[in-house]
Amino acid sequence: MKNIKLEFKWAVIFILMTLAWMVLEKIAGLHGKYIDYHLYLTNLYAIPAIIVMVMGLKDIKSQKYAGQISYLQGLKAGVIIAIIIAIFSPGMQWIISYIITPEYFPNVIQRSVEIGYFDTIEEAEAQFNFANYAKQSTIAALVMGVLTTGIAMIFIRSKK
């Protein structure tokens, strides 16, 4: 466990940032009054997500590798962070869905039917539910974590 102490630290920071982002979305009305804008504005989450991941990789480079990190060492660290986040993603989604913003699913279901995105409530419910979001967030954590790390390490790695 000591070997991945920094990766765990940055995964926790990432999780806390994600929960804070969801609180901000709720406060901004993106899960209620302004739900029509949610589809677009939620993508801004990528900015702090990338920033946190890059900060984590730079911290690992500095502390774990004394400022000298190879692409593969950084990729391994990023994959570990992504795996930790993915493991906690269903729990994080539970907190979001049932504590932070329990009104999101009913609101998005109703609105998606009103605007004709789905024909029936049942179709919308099949898309917008905790189980589906828990799966999606777990897969996204892995895919986006590895992708972000792969690109970031091109710039963070030590050049010889």
From TrEMBL:
Keyword 4Fe-4S on this protein? no
Q: Which UniProt keywords apply?
A: Membrane, Transmembrane, Transmembrane helix
Where is the chain membrane-spanning? Answer: 12-31, 37-57, 78-100, 138-156
**Protein name as catalogued:** DUF4199 domain-containing protein
Top-level taxonomy:
Bacteria, Pseudomonadati, Bacteroidota, Cytophagia, Cytophagales
Oxidoreductase in keyword set: no
> Coiled-coil region(s) at which residues?
none
